[in-house]
C-alpha cells in the first residue's frame, strides 16, 4: 500500500529514502572509525616501509639503522619530527574507500535481506541467509570500492618512494585517480579486484553476520526498536572492527 504524497513528505528522511539513509549512516560510521584508528594504520605502514627501505640500502645492518622501533616510539617520532596532525597524513583516500565500501555493502545486504531472501515468520533472519548475504554484499561493496582501494595503496607506496629517495608520482588523491585512469583506462581502476573481492566475501561473512546478530540482540533485549539508532550502533561496532583490520 503506497503512502499518499502529502503524508510521505511528513515522514522522516530515513523512512522516505531508507537505502540512501543507510548508505550515509554506514559511511559516517566508517569515517568516524577510520579517523579514530588511522594513526595506528599509518604507524604500521611507516614501520613496514622503513624496514623495507633499510633492507634495500643496508642489508643486514638495517636493524641498527632504523630511526624508530615499535608502534609507540614510531608514533611519538612522527609527532615530534613532523607534527601531531601528520598522524592523519593520507587519511583522505582511506575515508573515500570506507565510505564507498561500507555504504555499498550495507545497502546491498539490506536489500538482499529484505527483498531477495526475506525473514522468517517470526521476523528472525536465519544464520545461513546472513552468511550468504554477507558474502554477496562484501563482493558488491569491494567491487564498487576497488578504485578507491587502489588509490589508497598507491598513495601509501609514495611514502616508500620518499624514503628511497625516488621522485613522487602523485600530487594528491585526485591526481592519483587521474593518472591511473590515463595510464590504464577504466579497467586500470579495477586492477587486482579478484583477490580483493575474495577477501571481502570472507571478511563480510563474519562482519555482517555480527551486525545482524548485534542488532537482533539490541531489539530483543533493550528498549531500542529496529530503527536508525539501532542500525547506527550496530554499524559503528562493525565499522570500528573493520577500520582496525
From TrEMBL:
Family according to the record: Belongs to the mitochondrial carrier (TC 2.A.29) family.
GO cellular component: membrane
Recorded topology in the membrane: Multi-pass membrane protein
Record-linked InterPro entries: MCP_dom_sf, MCP_transmembrane, Mito_Metabolite_Transporter
Keyword terms, alphabetized: Membrane, Repeat, Transmembrane, Transmembrane helix, Transport
Subcellular localization, as worded in the UniProt entry: Membrane
Protein's recorded name: Solute carrier family 25 member 27
Pfam assignment, any one: Mito_carr
Chief location bin: membrane
Statement: the UniProt record of this protein carries the keyword Kinase: no
Top-rank lineage group of the source organism: Eukaryota
Solcar repeat segments: 21-115, 125-217
Database matches in SUPFAM superfamilies: Mitochondrial carrier (SSF103506)
Keyword presence, Membrane: yes
Amino acid at each position: 500500500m503506497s503512502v499518499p504524497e502529502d503524508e510521505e513528505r511528513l515522514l522522516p528522511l530515513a523512512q522516505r529514502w531508507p537505502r540512501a539513509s543507510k548508505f550515509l549512516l554506514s559511511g559516517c560510521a566508517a569515517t568516524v572509525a577510520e579517523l579514530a584508528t588511522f594513526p595506528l594504520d599509518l604507524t604500521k605502514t611507516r614501520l613496514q616501509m622503513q624496514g623495507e627501505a633499510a633492507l634495500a640500502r643496508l642489508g643486514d645492518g638495517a636493524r641498527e639503522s632504523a630511526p624508530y622501533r615499535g608502534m609507540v616510539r614510531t608514533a611519538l617520532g612522527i609527532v615530534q619530527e613532523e607534527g601531531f596532525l601528520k598522524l592523519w597524513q593520507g587519511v583522505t583516500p582511506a575515508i573515500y574507500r570506507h565510505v564507498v565500501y561500507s555504504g555499498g555493502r550495507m545497502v546491498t545486504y539490506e536489500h538482499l535481506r529484505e527483498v531477495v531472501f526475506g525473514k522468517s515468520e517470526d521476523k528472525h533472519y536465519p544464520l545461513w541467509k546472513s552468511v550468504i548475504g554477507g558474502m554477496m554484499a562484501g563482493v558488491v561493496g569491494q567491487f564498487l570500492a576497488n578504485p578507491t582501494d587502489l588509490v589508497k595503496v598507491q598513495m601509501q607506496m609514495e611514502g616508500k618512494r620518499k624514503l628511497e629517495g625516488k621522485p613522487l608520482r602523485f600530487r594528491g588523491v585526485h591526481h592519483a585517480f587521474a593518472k591511473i585512469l590515463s595510464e590504464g583506462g577504466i579497467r586500470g581502476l579495477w586492477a587486482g579486484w579478484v583477490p580483493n573481492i575474495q577477501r571481502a566475501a570472507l571478511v563480510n561473512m563474519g562482519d555482517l553476520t555480527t551486525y545482524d546478530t548485534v542488532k537482533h540482540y539490541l531489539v530483543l533485549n533493550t528498549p531500542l526498536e529496529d530503527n536508525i539508532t539501532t542500525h547506527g550502533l550496530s554499524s559503528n561496532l562493525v565499522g570500528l572492527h573493520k577500520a582496525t583490520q
